[in-house]
Amino acid sequence: MPKDVFIDPFTDFGFKKLFREEESKEALMDFLNQFLPTHDQIHSLEYGKNEHLPRTEEDRIAIFDLLCTNQDNKKFIIELQRAKQTFLVDRSIYYLSFLLQEQGKKGPDWNYELQTVYSINILQFQLKEKAFPKRQLIYYAQIRHSISGRPITDKINFIYLEVPKFNKSLEELQSRQDKWLFLLKNLAKLDKRPPALRDRVFQRFFERAKIAKLPPKEARNYQMNLEKMGDYKNTIQHAKNEAREEGREEGRVEGRVENQISTAQNMYSKGFDYKTIADILNVKEKEVKQWLKSKG
User: Is the pLDDT assigned to residue 55 strictly greater than 60?
Assistant: First the structure.
């Protein structure tokens, strides 16, 4: 079986390496500008400090802030995250709220004028929310008037990129946006840089993505990330399979609880925190803690 050539951008390591390091700025700006409106095209950006994130180290890798300047020298903020499946919309609203709160200025003279903020969410799964059309690949959302449908503000914006729905082949790529979506979905499957992606920004992006060029410590971290992601996918599938089985055997309460406890133990042994386990099993976090404590 041939070895992988390029980093998977949907791993924690890959996402950080390709989009969050200082050398990644050129590619990150080019990528984001394909999804932002013309009046907020990024001309320069700085990485934020992520001081508002109250969660795990995993969140601090998968979510980060960008302080951007557009062509009119106007400042705005982007929160970029590689989104999880559980409570996606709630999660994006929750984290964006911190960026709004942090703009508040102390003292009586602040007039509550906010900078524009964007929450850009990169999804490796298909959305189930009814508000999102099934065939649509990119979703733009704002706070809108319930009757007129017009935005009551253009300063709070959500963008969701549903990457699995992108199905164009290399020969069908037309726009810059197409090329970036193709890369997100297929980078880890490629063994060389395709002719359709010969632009300077892609050339540098592919160089940074080469596994063979990683220092030994980074290569080990990436391999650990791959294994963890595989465990996560397997655990998700196991939980879904058990849920279907439980549905066919309605009434066997004791058996269902034992299955959930077993799944929780398996996930905890693989490094998942209580909150993630509770979200996946659709139970309260305190129940997970009690299960794991009772099983020693």
Answer: no
Asked, for residue 153, whether it belongs to a domain, the answer is: yes
Token pair in block for residue 248:
């066919």
Specify the amino acid at residue 56: T
As for how many domains the chain has, the answer is 2
The pair of three-digit structure tokens given for residue 229, joined into one six-digit string: 């992601």
Return the exposure string of 111-142: e unless at least 16 CB atoms fall within 10 Å of the residue's CB, then b. eeeeebbbbbbbbbeebeeeebeeeeeebebe
Same domain, 157 and 23: yes
pTM of the model: 0.76
- Indicate whether 179 and 254 sit together in one domain: no
Query: Which two three-digit tokens encode residue 112?
Result: 């509550």
Q: Over the stretch 246-267, which tens digit does the pLDDT of each residue have?
A: 555 544 555 566 677 878 877 7
Residue 296 and residue 227: Cα distance in Å, rounded?
26
- Residue 156 lies inside a defined structural domain of this protein: yes
- Give CA–CA dist 144/254, Å, rounded: 46
- Integer-rounded Cα radius of gyration of the chain: 21
Question: Are 208 and 140 within one domain?
Answer: yes
Q: Which domain holds residue 240?
A: 216-294
Main-chain dihedrals φ then ψ at residue 161, nearest 5 degrees: -105, 110
Using alpha carbons, list the distances in angstroms from residue 221 to 17, 216, 217, 269: 11, 9, 6, 19
Q: Which of 212, 208, 211, 187 is nearest to 197 (CA)?
A: 187
Q: What order do you get walking across the sheet with 44-47 strand by strand? A: 44-47, 63-69, 75-82, 116-123, 156-162, 138-141
Say which residue the tokens 């900078």 belong to: 115
Distance CA 28, CA 42 (A): 10
Whether residue 96 sits in one domain with residue 20: yes
Start-to-end CA distance of the chain, whole Å, equals: 40
pLDDT of residue 280: 77
